Amino acid sequence: MLLNRASSGERWRVRPDGPGKVTGGLAYLTDMTTDHMLYGLVLRSEHPHAHILSINTDKAKKLPGVHAILTYLDIPGLNAYGIAHPDQPVLCEDRARYVGDALATVAADTLAAAQQALELIEVDYEVLEVVDDPECALLPSSPQLHPGGNELHRTVFSRGDVDQGFRDCAYIVEETYYTPRQMHTYMETEGGLFVPGEDGRLTVYSPTQHGFMDRMQLSRILKKPQEEIRIVSSPIGGSFGGKDELNVQPYGALLAMQTGRPIKIHNSRWESVRAGLKRHPMKITMKTGVDAAGKLMAHQVSLISDTGPYSTLGAEVLNFATEHVIGPYQYVHLDVKGVSVFTNNGMSGEFRGFGGNQAIFALEGQMDRLAEMAGMEPWFFRKLNMRQSDNLGPFDQPIAMTEGAEQVWEAIAKCPLWLEKEHLTRMSSSGDEPWIKTGIGAAFTMHGAGLGVGIPDPAGGRLELAADGKIEAVFGYEEFGQGLLASLEQMLIEQFGFGAKDIRMIIGDTDVVPDSGSTTASRATAMMWKSLQKLKAPFSGQLLQRAAAVLNRPVEQLQLGEGGIKGTRENSLLLSYKELADAAGEPIRCETSFSFPTSSTERVGAHYMYTYSAVVVKAEVNTLSGRARVLQQYHVVAAGPVINPQGYLGQIEGGSSMALGFTLLEDSVMEKGHYIARNLDTYLVPTIEDQRGLVEVEAIEQLPEGDDYGPRGIGEVGSVTLAPAIAAAIRQACGKWATKLPVEPSFLQEAPFFLGKG
Amino acid sequence: MGMNIQETIASPLVWHPQTAAEAWQLKQTYDIEAVYTSGGTLLRTQWESGISAMPQHLIDLSAIRGLNELRVGEAGLVVGGQTSLQSCRSNALLSRHFPMVTEAIRTIAAPSVRQLATIGGNVASSIGDSIAALLGYDAEVIWFDGTREHRALLSEWLHEASAAKRGNERLLLSVLLPFEESLGETPVSNGAEDLTSQMKRFGAYHKVGRREAFTPSVVTACINGVLTCSNVIKQIRIALGGGQTVPVRLEGLEKEISGADVDGQLLRHVYDRTIELFEPREDLFASAAYRKSTAANLIVSELWKAAKDNTKQL
Amino acid sequence: MSEEAVKSESPYVLRCFVNGKEELIDTKPAARLLTIVRDELSLTGTKRSCEIGRCGACMVLIEGKAVNSCLTMAYQCSEKQITTIEGIAVQGMDPVQQAFLEEGGFQCGYCTPGMIISVKALLDENPDPSDDEIAEALSGNICRCTGYGGIWRAVKRAAEGRRQTT
């Protein structure tokens, strides 16, 4: 089904968070202020790599209006954070490893006083050699950034004997692919309000993708029981993975506890660029071969990932990339090696696609090159080598089986845009502007959801009939724009029969919500769906039984409806939810908790549930400037039932726009550990003008009979296939294979044909 | 907290002179502590990025009488320096007579920024993206030296601006765009060959940036000329700029090709000489070599297109 | 100097009209409108993001034209009519807001007030814009979530709605 308003009918709904967003009435956490608050700022390292010999805050402390200046000496608990492995100092003690490293934090009456205080802090540095190239970082001669060396993590996966495999190949493609340091560029920079209570508790109003994780990490830093910290974390002005890790929270929390005053922090864009996460730049070398019939015989991959100075989720991203460079194809022999390396460049971390973007660009590039070399139609070539539905997953692990790969392949094979490809003549020099050349390309992926084997991946939620008669749906997930609330509301309406006005949704507040796990890895909608499946019978049952008692009617004759309890035969309202809530008895409340389904393998990071997707892209290259433009896109996504058509469409459109930036525009260029692009005048993300072409999204909803996992994730998959598809379109347009993203215009530029050669 | 740090620390006094003389005098009085400002959009970017500190005095030029409009003067269209770029963008006179200037302004920033930013500010920065198009029309500038108004070719004014820091002495008032003479009135010198009496104007402005809209320029290129129907170049102006490069006319090349036939050899010559003559500044986003070849490609392809339209032979 | 140039003193009282209401604001002549709107008037629908006019999150209407409030200094607002997202609707919701709601022209919503301001300015000036005109008018508003798909649909719907009602 093509997803759009018309095809969705009544399922196309106005989002519950919409009115607040279009009127400006919705207060984001960075919009909050309170009486007596102080402003917080952070002093960050001037150098990407330096010993810190001393930090002198004496002058700064004397400045009027300054209430606190904290250094590493003032941290009560663990001076480190990191979701997977806490090795990033909250405030550096003796060494700075990147330009975002924090050395001190200040609270003052005004921002101006806080800024002046920062300037008065005297730091004595001994500048060290900058490690800015991951390959050099692996040499024994390189300065070592951590006691364990510069290697954060290594991955290996092999099967058979690739050397033997390559001997059996008729065609071998060997290529190295490079991907950029893409910035999330959420429109709302990091920030929040940190309010100490008279009871000694601390309330943190600051965006994150997993409130309980922030609570645990802050508890470690503050040396304060988790129950004494409350994290309020939604709404969020965009995240894309970038706000999952702690950012300003440690500073706001420390300053609030120290001063006893509310602290407001809101990063400037430059602060956000400097300190924040980026997508891991990767260099991926692949050698892939097929036999004379075009069957994949051997696939050898070497990945090197620039993880920056500290761990955060660098190892997990590498695991994901390692799985996805294998992807949806069958190989006889396989040999994959990956390494994630510490450098003094910016922090790399979680970002929509989680290593899949880089992996798929390389893998699909190989498929297109091999097809061409073997003289085969590229989509047919993929079909020839594609996994069968009952095959094991990329790591030879059991997975939830679907027909997704086949379904997506078929949909692309017959879509009009793909069929147009063969009619495009390459290198045509007719027309008024013969230097504009057009091509069509496509790419395919299977993208894992959930955190994977070996990582706690809790899920769950709660339904409750509140005293005021509202049906409360309580989940520990976050709304950062993806439409989580809209999806939750739609499920409650469609699966239970409630009306929108009957429902109150509560998310993003650790004092109230259960730990439903993180809102990451394309998992939240699937986990809400599963929770509601589990809660449906007990919750509906309790509501109806209570109603039956009140109404003195058999429970079989009652059903849930908009506004209250209705009769199964007559559709009139018999009892409102308010009346039901007022009736005597135990509170009606159901809770569920379970884990995201995982594969039975031992392989850490291996996934169990996958979304299959592909995209066809039409692009043009103006060879005078070498600039490429995307003209049209057709996405096919097989992810089970469409929970919320507007949200689904928006996720694919938005993800692909991000991928367009990744492919053609975006790179946080660094020079010797310093960011060159400090704001949005030089770091360029797509504008509406870059995004003019038609984007169509076809959703394949069918799942195998008996599949009770429900909807698969769609939050990331829109952003992973576009790059290789654009690269293939560029190949058709002007004959060049792009291996480095963003595609450099100078690489595609040609002197006009009429000048002849020379 | 909408507040940013700069503004809470520094708070310039803002002066609103009513005449150019007053503005000039204020600048002499406060010298390096004062900065002329119109829309202030470029200044704000510089303050935010730390390239320059907020000054102690801002001299707001927007109140100076008579600089806020486009009017037809004796020699051409006079565009007051305080005219906002967005007013220029939507001005019918400008787009009728100087469409390449309109096109250049369309590609500058976004409409909301153009509401504040002025043509004077764009030109006075020496690197504004309107400049290449203005050069393509042989624009002049009117400036004030404290006692009287001067008129000079924009190309010369830019040359002096880049040669010496003369911001104190020269206050840009207006841009003057001379109307191009109608081709009907062009004297035909070689009456023997009547074919040449039919001539046509051609021209184009291109900005190549790093994305499709609201982008810093990498190359700006303007070509404006007259071809006879047998593809002889009767008149030609070529102007190039982009990024931090002060735009220039390629006058040497213009002379070399005036009167020449547009053929394969000439196109090759234009291409090679553009690469030789154009000296763009590079940065980490685009090399000088790329800027040169882009400029050469844009110019030579427009020339090819003009000649091809004429004869459909090339 | 024969005649004294007018000087905006610091401290400085800005007189302007915000969402139709006269405001007298103690500020500094070079203070940014963004700060004034958010901190002095507590109108936080106008968002802070890049602060150099490159993203459009802080867009407001000044005399009906969309302008970046982060680039606008207090003295430039003197005696001007300023409309923020909070004042965009005469009553209930403006048709532009309604169109964004119905078409899903937003996700995280942080760019949305600025985007709606730009669309409002466009349609007030040009009720039937072409695609080129829409793209130009919105080229200063960055949306990182939607890929602009919902925004294209919302603008077209809003324009269509206006055509039908007039």
Give a quick rundown of the structure:
The complex is a heterotrimer of chains A (758), B (314) and C (166). By secondary structure, chain B is an alpha+beta fold.
Account of the 3D structure:
The complex is a heterotrimer of chains A (758), B (314) and C (166). Chain A is built from 20 helices and 28 strands. Chain A has 758 residues and is an alpha+beta fold. Chain A folds into three domains: 29-128 and 187-238 and 243-275, Alpha-Beta Complex (Aldehyde Oxidoreductase, domain 3); 282-452 and 602-754, 2-Layer Sandwich (Aldehyde Oxidoreductase, domain 4); 458-595, Aldehyde oxidase/xanthine dehydrogenase, molybdopterin binding domain (Aldehyde Oxidoreductase, domain 4). In chain A, helix 11 runs parallel beside helix 19 (722-734) and helix 15 packs parallel to helix 16. Chain A is globular, with a radius of gyration of 27 Å. With 314 residues, chain B is an alpha+beta fold. Chain B has three domains: 12-63, Uridine Diphospho-n-acetylenolpyruvylglucosamine Reductase, domain 2 (2-Layer Sandwich), CATH 3.30.43; 70-178, Uridine Diphospho-n-acetylenolpyruvylglucosamine Reductase, domain 3, CATH 3.30.465.10; 199-311, 2-Layer Sandwich (Enolase-like, domain 1). Chain B contains 13 helices and twelve strands. Chain B has helices spanning 5-9, 20-30, 41-49, 85-89, 92-97, 99-106, 111-116, 119-124, 131-136, 154-163, 251-257, 264-277, 288-311; strands spanning 13-16, 34-37, 57-60, 70-72, 76-80, 140-144, 149-153, 171-178, 199-209, 217-228, 233-242, 245-249. Chain B has a five-stranded antiparallel β-sheet. A four-stranded antiparallel β-sheet of chain B has the order 9-10-11-12, with helices on both faces. In chain B, strand 2 (34-37), helix 3 (41-49) and strand 3 form a beta-alpha-beta unit. Mean pLDDT of chain B is 91; it is low at 190-196. Chain C is of the alpha+beta class and 166 residues long. Chain C is built from five helices and six strands, in the order βββαβββαααα. Chain C has a five-stranded mixed β-sheet, with helices on both faces. In chain C, helix 2 (95-103) packs across helix 5 (149-165). The longest helix of chain C is centred in the C-terminal third of the chain and has 17 residues, at 149-165. At the A-C interface, helix 2 and helix 18 of A face helix 2, helix 3, helix 4 and helix 5 of C. Strand 1 (13-16) of chain B pairs antiparallel with strand 1 (6-8) of chain C.
